[in-house]
Write a structure and sequence with these properties.
Oligomer: single chain
Shape: globular
Number of helices: 8
Radius of gyration: 16 Å
Structural class: alpha/beta
CATH class: Alpha Beta
Distance between the termini: 31 Å
CATH architecture: 3-Layer(aba) Sandwich
Strand content: 15-25%
Number of domains: 1
Bound molecules: uracil
CATH superfamily: Uracil-DNA glycosylase-like domain
Helix content: 40-55%
């Protein structure tokens, strides 16, 4: 059977390969299945766990605002997370939890085939570049050649940005996020990638 996003959603519901799945709902990504731009956060929070959808709490509202600030809509992009379950008390996901959930993110990327991936924050950036720091990498495009399976490789642009939740605790980051989204807009326009 051909793998699709709805099928992936069903398979995730049956999966128990991550200890977090005992106490939390699965939260797969959502959005445009043909999106050119894919945003990837860290892990679901309380609201996301309640509704089973990514970025629907306070950080999600700010992300919607940032996306709107460059003339795009949430429905035109795809939004997901590295970890598919809420860690207790929103603690950082462990390296083991990130590793266990990694195949789901890889499958989502393989299905969406985005031109630009925007990791939000250090956990997501670390999925693509293990040694890069978000404080130096944010707001700039990086090229990544990645394996698409069966010996094939593909190029994708990684455009890291701070996690929107960070700006909810640190007001100075709010402007940095808006500035980074303007850089992202410029990058997309230069490449002719339109909403
Ligand atoms: N923070 C994340 O990293 N992901 C969500 O889905 C919500 C908040």
């Amino acid at each position: 059977m051909e793998l699709t996003l709805p099928l992936l959603q069903e398979k995730l519901k049956e999966w128990n390969g991550c200890a977090l799945s005992r106490n939390a709902k699965p939260v797969l990504g959502e959005g445009n299945p043909n999106a050119a731009v894919m945003f990837i956060g860290e892990a679901p929070g309380e609201k996301e766990d309640e509704l089973g959808r990514p970025f629907v709490g306070a950080a999600g509202k700010f992300l919607d605002e940032l996306i709107a600030s460059i003339g795009w809509k949430r429905s035109q992009v795809y939004i997901s997370n590295v970890v598919k379950y809420r860690p207790p008390q929103n603690r950082d996901p462990t390296p083991e939890e990130k590793e266990q959930c990694m195949p789901w993110l890889k499958l989502e990327i393989a299905l969406i085939k985005p031109k630009v991936i925007v990791p939000l924050g250090r956990h997501s950036l670390g999925h693509f570049f293990t040694k890069m720091s978000i404080s130096t990498a944010h707001g700039n495009a990086q090229k990544l050649t990645h394996s698409t399976g069966s010996g094939q490789t593909d190029d994708v642009t990684i455009f890291p940005i701070y996690h929107p939740a960070a700006a909810l605790h640190n007001g100075n980051l709010r402007q940095a996020l808006f500035d980074d989204f303007q850089n992202l807009k410029k990058h997309l326009e230069e490449r002719g990638i339109a909403p």
